[in-house]
Amino acid sequence: MNVLVLNAGSSSLKFQVIATDLERIKQNSDERLCRGQVERIGGNAIITLQSGQGARHKSTAPLRDIGAALDYVLKWLTSAESDIPDINSPEDIHAVGNRVVHGGELFSESALITDQVLKGIEDCIDLAPLHNPSNIQGMMAARKIFGQNVPQVAVFDTAFHSSLAEPAYLYAIPYHLYQRHRIRRYGFHGTSHRYVAHRYRALRQLTREQTNVITLHLGNGASATAIRAGKSIDSSMGMTPLEGLVMGTRSGDLDPSLVSLIAMKEGLSANEVDTLLNTQSGLLGISGLSNDMRALCDELHQHDDRRVRLAIEIFCWRARKYIGAYLACMNGADALVFTGGIGENSSTIRARICSGFEWAALKLDEEQNDKLVGTEGEISAEGSKLRAYVIPTDEELLIARDTVRVILGEPHPS
Ligand code: ADP
Fold it and tell me: Does the model's pTM come out above 0.90?
């Protein structure tokens, strides 16, 4: 089955086509036929396209909305230019899998898109006003182009964390705020945490119930999840993705009174403080230089800049704090799993985060840690009781697999 995976944002559309079915899922032999993205939709859009392992092609075209972007992508997919032997006409796309940011309390797993499910995703708009509307536009565009006969599935960022219990998801604020406005912690990056937990268990040949890990998705956005017996029992992002770890431009945890204090001192509105905490804080805010960890690591290496060092130290300190807290909440874990751009590629940051966990019997194999860049494997030394792994995430693959499973009525195994 050729599944078109869509991730529709406010001005961007990322896509992949993945050939998969139940047999391929079992054999881990799914095939990525192509990938690409359209950025700056609404103006002169920038389009990047790549088939198989081929070269990337960049071009520009005026594309007014997500529908026009999808149209453009489909024309390329079915043309001789893309050179994908299995896709020659729109009929060669058999299903569409959509990333949806917020499923609220309505969706605890991936769902076949029906009018009722669409209405549910609309009901979650007030929980993710910047994201869910674009996700819906992606689905509507695909419905218009492919028709009702091509099934579509929604895969939610929040669904994996629906297993959180009340003590983990409720804020200690008046309970009626939860009842009235559904103010609670939801957690995000669920597809990524679930995917790497699934790979970890495949690598170690464990059952789901035997999977006790802390997964660290460290990218531009960052979150940690405590997974006990294969289920998410706590995750660092909250009602919105602002809570938790230090991120590229987000502050993560802070004293909530700071919002009104900063507003008063700087003459800003609550909304403006929210923007400051989301877009001008984190690594960027502390370093004053960049939100990009690789750039900061290079800068530290070359100039030993004090604020760059501080940004990296605060980032790692917060991650270590969450690991410690989760070890306590989940009665110890068997492994830390690093993923996301930073987690997959930066041996320096992994080493900093893992240092000082000797008390938990975690010892890094430094050579392995340096060696594993963007590839999967163990980085802890022999005899470590708390192990450490690097596992590149693949949210699109999980979306494609869930799409197949939902359409064929198979329950998802992890
Ligand atoms: P997003 O959350 O936008 O998907 P990614 O998961 O792609 O982000 O992660 C991007 C982050 O990963 C950036 O901060 C980038 O600098 C960082 N990164 C990528 N490679 C390295 C590296 N070798 N060393 C340090 N950081 C890296």
Answer: yes
Q: Is residue 187 part of a domain?
A: no
Q: Do 223 and 349 fall within a single domain?
A: yes
**Cα–Cα distance for residue pair 12/16, rounded to 1 Å:** 14
Enumerate the β-bridge partners of residue 389: 337, 378
Distance between CA 197 and CA 116 in Å, rounded? Answer: 31
Number of helices (H) and strands (E) in the chain: give both, helices first.
Answer: 16, 14
**Tally of CA atoms within 13 A in the half-sphere of 48 that contains its CB:** 12
Domain around 223: 207-390
92 classed as catalytic: no
Q: Judge whether 17 lies within some domain.
A: yes
Determine the Cα–Cα distance for residues 370 and 189; give it in Å rounded to an integer: 26
* Mean pLDDT within 49-60: 90
Q: Which of 331, 319, 330 is nearest to 357 (CA)?
A: 319
pLDDT digits (tens, 9 = 90+) for 214-252: 999 999 999 999 999 999 999 999 999 999 999 999 999
C-alpha separations of 274 from 94, 111, 184, 222, 297 in Å: 41, 32, 18, 18, 27
| 317 part of a folded domain | yes
Q: Is 279 in the same domain as 136?
A: no
384: domain CATH number is: 3.30.420.40
Residues 111 and 97: their CA atoms lie apart, in Å, by 10
Asked whether 286 lines ligand 1 (CB < 6 A), one says: no
The residue whose CB lies within 8 Å of the most ligand 1 atoms, and thus the one to mutate among 14, 196, 218, 220, is: 220
**In terms of domains, do 91 and 18 share one?**
yes
For residue 342 and ligand 1, the question of a CB distance below 6 A is answered with yes
Cβ atoms of residues 217 and 336 within 8 Å:
no
Any idea what the Cα angle at residue 125 is, between residues 122 and 130, rounded to 5°?
A: 130
Token reading at 195: 């995917």
Report the distance separating Cα 165 and Cα 120, nearest Å: 22
The total domain count for the chain is 2
Residue 277 in contact with residue 221, Cβ under 8 Å?
no
Percent helix, strand, coil in the chain, to 5, is 45, 20, 35
